[in-house]
Structures are given as structure tokens and as C-alpha cells.
């Protein structure tokens, strides 16, 4: 059902109220912004609670997509949504959904051939970028090590273009100095564990991937990169060759290059 809302204090808008605050504190819901992500949210397993948007955006969306009868649609003005959300929501269409439990590590590993493991990646936009790149380059799943932020934060969902809602992911248990022990589960499953590092002592990425049927690519945070604890738990340290005067790339960019190189390595099979 579609409803026109005229009061910014209407409790039906509470799901999208103060979005910057809820994003910072990771409170409760999944928020999808823009028609593409709303569509992917509706198609995902996450139970959609409502859709909120400007009249023109809702009209256009409904002319192209079906919305389940049990999902209410709330029509508001741009000024109202700006006041409710806490900033100018210029995309004009968003949806909220209930969270679900993440997959287990075993579920993500099962049947996978290529995985990416993040350690200490706290920037939500980098997380979203890695998920988007992984989905686009046929990575089977994502595993999160210590210090990695929640991929269901609003900005991560937005930057991933909603792919975080469909790509399997799970979090390893453990803290800064011991989560790496859980990587043995990947080794036991036949994965070659490859650490991405700018170190000159590391081998060329293509060499590290050559001949591997299953690969798990480890990436670390901007700046510090992977911890020595994590790299010691892997089979090989690999680098992306860099031009003189440069030493590293953004972590999402590095991951994308690694995913592409992984695809190239599979041509040998």
C-alpha cells in the first residue's frame, strides 16, 4: 500500500530517521538507497520493512518494478526527507529491511573457489567497494577478520551497489592476535592463502596465483595493511608491481586487480 505522509514526526518514518547516527552506531536495520539498491534489497533474503521516497521517484519505480503487497510505500517531499534523514537524500528513494544473521564460515567456504579475506578494514566505503568488485569478478564469498567493520552499514551497502546483500560473507571469531588461527580452516579445505602486500620481498601476484585451484586473497586496512600475524598464517606473500615513486593502491583497487588476476589464472584450468 502507498501512503502520503505530511508530518516529519510520523513514526512510520522512524526507520529512516537520523541515518548518519544509525550508520555510525550500526543500529539495527539495513538501508538501501536509490532504485538499483532498493530493487536488490527487495530481491534479497533481508525482509523489507518499507520504502520511502519522493512522488516522482516512487512513480517511476512502480512503473518498472513490482513491490510486494505487504511492503508499505511512504511518499514524502524532499524537504521532509532531508529533515527526517538528517541530510539531503537526493536519490529520492530508499528502503529499510531487517537484518539477518550472517552465514557461517563453513557455509561461505563450501563450494567456493575464490574468496577474499579482509583484516582491519574499517572504512565502510572500502568494504562496499571490495564487495562490489568481488561480485563483479566472480569471487564466491567474503570473510572478515579482526577489526573489519560491519558490511551492512548504510555506506557499505550503498558503495557495494547492494551486492553485499547477495554475496555470502561471514566473520572469523577471535581478536587481533589470534583470529588468524581460524585461517587453518581454509587451508584444510584446499585453499592457497595469498597475502597482498607492497613489500619488495613478496612475489609477483601472477606467480602467487599460478596453478592454484582454490585461492583466498587477504587484504588489510589502508596504511598499515595486513598484520604480520595474518601474513605468517598464509602460504605466500604477493605484490602488485608499482611504478617508481609509488608504493601502494587503495585497498578496494588492489583487491579488484587481484580478483582480475585470479580470473586470468583460472584460464589455465
UniProtKB/TrEMBL annotation:
<dbReference type="InterPro" id="IPR051259">
    <property type="entry name" value="rRNA_Methyltransferase"/>
</dbReference>
<keyword id="KW-0489">Methyltransferase</keyword>
<dbReference type="InterPro" id="IPR029028">
    <property type="entry name" value="Alpha/beta_knot_MTases"/>
</dbReference>
<dbReference type="GO" id="GO:0003723">
    <property type="term" value="F:RNA binding"/>
</dbReference>
<dbReference type="InterPro" id="IPR029026">
    <property type="entry name" value="tRNA_m1G_MTases_N"/>
</dbReference>
<dbReference type="GO" id="GO:0008173">
    <property type="term" value="F:RNA methyltransferase activity"/>
</dbReference>
<dbReference type="Pfam" id="PF00588">
    <property type="entry name" value="SpoU_methylase"/>
</dbReference>
<dbReference type="InterPro" id="IPR029064">
    <property type="entry name" value="Ribosomal_eL30-like_sf"/>
</dbReference>
<feature type="domain" description="tRNA/rRNA methyltransferase SpoU type">
    <location>
        <begin position="115"/>
        <end position="260"/>
    </location>
</feature>
<protein>
    <submittedName>
        <fullName>RNA methyltransferase</fullName>
    </submittedName>
</protein>
<keyword id="KW-0808">Transferase</keyword>
<dbReference type="GO" id="GO:0032259">
    <property type="term" value="P:methylation"/>
</dbReference>
<dbReference type="InterPro" id="IPR001537">
    <property type="entry name" value="SpoU_MeTrfase"/>
</dbReference>
<dbReference type="GO" id="GO:0006396">
    <property type="term" value="P:RNA processing"/>
</dbReference>
Amino acid at each position: 500500500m502507498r501512503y502520503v505522509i505530511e508530518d516529519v514526526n510520523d513514526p512510520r518514518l522512524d526507520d529512516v530517521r537520523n541515518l548518519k547516527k544509525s550508520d555510525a552506531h550500526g543500529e539495527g536495520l539495513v538501508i538501501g538507497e536509490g532504485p538499483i539498491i532498493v530493487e536488490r534489497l527487495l530481491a534479497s533474503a533481508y525482509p523489507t520493512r518499507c520504502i520511502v521516497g519522493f512522488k516522482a521517484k516512487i512513480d517511476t519505480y512502480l512503473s518498472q518494478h513490482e513491490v510486494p503487497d505487504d511492503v508499505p510505500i511512504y511518499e514524502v517531499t524532499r524537504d521532509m526527507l532531508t529533515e527526517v534523514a538528517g541530510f539531503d537524500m537526493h536519490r529520492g528513494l530508499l528502503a529499510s529491511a531487517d537484518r539477518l544473521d550472517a552465514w557461517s564460515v563453513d557455509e561461505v567456504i563450501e563450494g567456493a573457489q575464490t574468496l577474499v579475506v579482509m583484516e582491519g578494514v574499517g572504512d565502510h566505503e572500502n568494504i562496499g567497494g571490495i564487495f562490489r568488485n568481488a561480485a563483479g569478478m566472480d569471487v564466491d564469498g567474503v570473510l572478515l577478520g579482526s577489526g573489519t567493520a560491519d558490511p551492512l552499514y548504510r555506506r557499505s551497502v550503498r558503495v557495494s551497489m547492494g551486492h553485499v546483500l547477495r554475496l555470502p560473507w561471514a566473520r572469523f571469531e577471535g581478536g587481533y592476535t589470534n583470529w588468524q588461527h581460524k585461517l587453518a580452516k581454509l587451508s584444510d579445505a584446499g585453499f592457497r592463502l595469498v597475502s597482498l602486500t607492497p613489500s619488495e620481498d613478496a612475489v609477483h601476484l601472477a606467480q602467487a596465483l599460478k596453478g592454484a585451484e582454490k585461492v583466498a586473497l587477504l587484504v588489510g586496512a589502508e596504511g598499515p595493511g595486513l598484520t604480520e600475524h595474518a601474513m605468517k598464517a598464509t602460504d605466500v606473500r604477493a605484490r602488485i608491481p608499482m611504478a617508481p615513486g609509488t608504493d601502494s593502491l587503495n585497498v578496494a583497487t588492489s583487491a579488484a586487480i587481484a580478483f582480475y588476476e585470479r580470473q586470468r589464472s583460472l584460464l589455465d584450468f
